[in-house]
Specification:
The chain is an alpha+beta fold. The protein has helices at about 5-10, 85-95, 105-115; strands at about 15-20, 25-30, 30-35, 35-40, 55-60, 70-80, 115-125, 130. Helix 2 (about 85-95) packs across helix 3. It is globular. It starts with a helix and ends in a 36-residue tail after the last strand.
C-alpha cells in the first residue's frame, strides 16, 4: 500500500476505529495533526479503555464512500499538560470539540485538571493495509452489554383503539 493513501485517510479522518491489544474497536472522534491522529478520552469525554496506558493500537480509517480503506498499527504517545506539544495541540483539539461548554481555554484547563488523556496515534506506513488487502469478512461485532439498554414497556393507551373494519 502506498503511504499516500494512508496520509490522505489521516487528513480526512474525523472518526477512527481504535482497538488496544485484543480488545474491541471503539469509534473515536479524532483530529488529524501532521501524520498523526489526536484523540481525547477521560472524564466527561469519550470512552477509550486502555488507550491512555497503551504503547500500540490498531487504527481503522474509512474512505469517502464510508467503507474501511486503511488498517494500520499505530504508536500511542500520551501528551502531558504543560509540555510544548500539549500547548500546541490541546487548544486546536478543544477548538474542534463540538458541544464543549466554555471557551477553548476552559476546555483545555478542564482536560488538564480532570486528568483526561490526550493521545497522539501515529500509524506506521509499513504496517498499513490498503482497501485491496483488507480482509473481506465483516468486522462487525454484536452489541456489548451496557446499562443503557433497558426493556421498554408497550405504550399506555387511555382508550381502546379499534381496528378499522373493511
Amino acid at each position: 500500500m502506498s503511504s499516500g493513501v494512508l496520509e490522505e485517510a489521516i487528513k480526512k479522518a474525523a472518526i477512527a476505529w481504535v482497538s488496544v491489544a485484543d480488545g474491541p474497536a471503539y469509534a473515536l472522534w479524532c483530529m488529524p495533526f501532521e501524520t498523526s491522529l489526536v484523540v481525547v478520552s477521560g472524564p466527561g469525554e469519550q470512552f477509550a479503555p486502555g488507550l491512555a496506558e497503551a504503547r500500540q493500537a490498531t487504527v481503522r480509517l474509512r474512505g469517502d464512500h464510508g467503507g474501511l480503506i486503511v488498517l494500520a498499527d499505530a504508536t500511542v504517545a500520551r501528551l502531558t499538560p504543560g509540555t510544548e506539544e500539549w500547548e500546541q495541540i490541546a487548544p486546536q483539539l478543544a477548538g474542534k470539540r463540538l458541544n464543549a461548554s466554555g471557551s477553548t481555554d476552559d476546555v483545555v484547563s478542564r482536560w488538564s485538571a480532570d486528568g483526561c488523556a490526550l493521545v497522539r496515534l501515529t500509524p506506521a506506513a509499513e504496517t498499513a493495509v490498503g482497501s485491496s488487502d483488507v480482509p473481506a469478512e465483516s468486522h462487525a461485532a454484536p452489541p456489548r452489554e451496557t446499562p443503557a439498554r433497558v426493556e421498554t414497556r408497550r405504550p399506555f393507551r387511555l382508550h381502546h383503539v379499534r381496528k378499522p373494519t373493511t
